[in-house]
Write a structure and sequence with these properties.
Helix content: 25-40%
Number of helices: 8
Number of strands: 7
Structural class: alpha/beta
Distance between the termini: 42 Å
Order of helices and strands: HHEEHEHEHEHEHEH
Radius of gyration: 18 Å
CATH architecture: 3-Layer(aba) Sandwich
CATH superfamily: Glycerol-3-phosphate (1)-acyltransferase
CATH topology: Glycerol-3-phosphate (1)-acyltransferase
Largest sheet: 7 strands, mixed
């Protein structure tokens, strides 16, 4: 089904009806195409809210799959603004609670909303790379996650995803052309990351860089070696 068909059909429906239909469509797609295997659910027991979940990012299906896996945690996802602007992927925002952010910019309003959400006791999920990996391997992450954790003091729990790049492959001709395919998706949930302490002999930039590597390696350790990318060592 094309994005044009979706937009024309949903244009005249009330928002709550669009949400209901969107959820049924997404559930139908995931039940039909995704064989989801989950490890580490025990790490979600006895969590004290709020929690910042972090994950690698391979596909537009990541948010849909992780929303299903983390349903009991009631997570708000941080998503790039272009997802809400695209007529097809915008349907996902009716299924997954999101805060939109403009990538590669100092989006102060979005960061303020994210921090406020966490301070209010709500869990969030961030894709620290900021975009989907075209190779499947981890890319260098952006440092916004450090700011969120600094102001909220929330625990960070890493998640490794592999296989979603086959479930809803990236189409370089446009997101509206992406189609679900049968795939096994492996989700591995890790333990809370122990945050580092600043050494006396390092400056803020050095400490932030070391902290980001520490956080991202927590994701890398949950992934097969070929997915670890710049955080392989």
């Amino acid at each position: 089904m094309s994005s044009t068909w979706y937009s024309m059909f949903f244009k005249f429906l009330p928002d709550n009806v669009v949400t209901l239909i969107s959820k049924k469509l997404v559930d139908g797609f995931l039940n039909k195409y995704a064989d989801i295997n989950i490890e580490g659910m025990e790490n979600l027991k006895n969590l004290e809210n709020p929690v910042i979940f972090i994950s690698n990012h391979l596909s537009n299906s990541d948010g849909l799959v992780l929303n299903k896996v983390l349903e009991a945690q009631d997570v708000t996802f941080v998503a790039g603004i272009k997802l809400s602007q695209n007529k097809f992927t915008n349907l996902g925002t009716h299924v997954v609670k999101t805060i939109t952010i403009t990538p590669n910019s100092a989006d102060k309003d979005a960061m303020s909303s994210i921090i406020k959400t966490v301070k209010s006791g709500n869990n969030i999920l961030v894709f620290p790379e900021g975009t989907r990996s075209r190779t499947g391997a981890l890319m260098e992450a952006r440092r916004g996650i450090l700011l969120i954790q600094k102001f909220t003091k929330a625990d960070i729990i890493p998640i490794g995803v592999c296989g979603s790049e086959k479930l809803l492959p990236i189409n370089n001709l446009g997101m509206e052309k992406e189609k679900f395919q049968h795939a096994r998706v492996n989700i591995k949930i890790g333990k809370a990351v122990k945050m580092l302490e600043k050494n006396q002999n390092e400056n803020k930039h050095e400490f932030d860089e070391r902290s980001m590597k520490h956080i991202m390696k927590a994701i890398a350790q949950l992934l097969p070696e070929e997915y670890r990318g710049v955080y392989k060592d």
